[in-house]
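step 4 of 6: structure.
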Amino acid sequence: MIEKNNLKDEELMILVKEHDDREAFEIILNRYKKKILNFIFRIIHNFHVAEELSQDVFVSIYLKRKSYTNSGKFSSFVFKIATNKTFNYLKKGKELFLEEKETNFEIEKENQDPLLKAISDERKMIFENKLMELSPVERTALILYIKEEKSYQEISEMMNCSLQSVKNYIHRGKAKLIRLIDESSKKSTGDIKNV
Amino acid sequence: MCEKFEEEILLNKKGRKLNEEVAEHISMCPTCRVLFEKNKEINSLIEEDEFLEVPENFNKNVFDKIEKLEGEKFEIERKKINLRLIQTIAASIIFIVSIFLTGMDLNKTKKEIPYSISDLKQEKLLDEMENISQNNEVNILSTYDKWNINN
């Protein structure tokens, strides 16, 4: 009998495709759920929506299993679906998204949501907030490039844009982040001096 | 001059080697060295591990959604098959009824027409023969009349 846990993602997905293997699918789910949830959360900053969207990513993978072609890395295939779901959400409900974002932060503060429990490091929290000041495409490109270690080519395929656009998003996003963090540290130094 | 190197510095990440020209410039230019350090700091913050834990019922919710959507898909397929079956039955009924009605019409028409095509042809032929024989008779009579007058 095959030890499924030792199989590569692509091999597991072939089992899912050809035999509707739920066990193989659950192994894939367990390997990627945390990555995908955090990836989507870092783009939209709403825990409940990120949870829903990341569940939908795996539902899509399972329902479209028959059309899966083993071309390219499996992780790129998963992140492409996640990027599409996130961008579609942002396109469809941009106004709703802004309202939800503010409301949810309030709820999370009161109920000690996983978000606040997890982000205990203040520096990390400041950084995550600064990251939110970038545009969604800049955030997505930066996370895929740095955190997920994807190439320009892979990112351009995931985001449906040119290689040059990917480079521009990363470059612009980094420059903006540096400026925002500099401003924030200057402000906090000024505050200390005033005290 | 530093602008030339800015993009290369900001696109740099762990595991990616700077080209020699940029590395040399960074070693000599304090502004670019600061930018290089800031870039490294930002990269390390982005690289940090996932901080959100996945809720316990995540897998269950995924499988529930799959069940629900596959159920809906199955229901849609079933409805499509039913619809196709109904369409086939309806088409067959229409076909059978139309054949039955056409058959009745043919019988009726057959009864109303007294002669068949061959009958018609035969009758026409007889008429023509009669005409010919009448004409011949007239001709014979006129010749006889002429002969009598002459004699």
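step 5 of 6: annotate
 - Chain A touches chain B through 42 residues (CB under 8 Å).
 - The two ends of chain A are 69 Å apart (CA to CA).
step 6 of 6: archive
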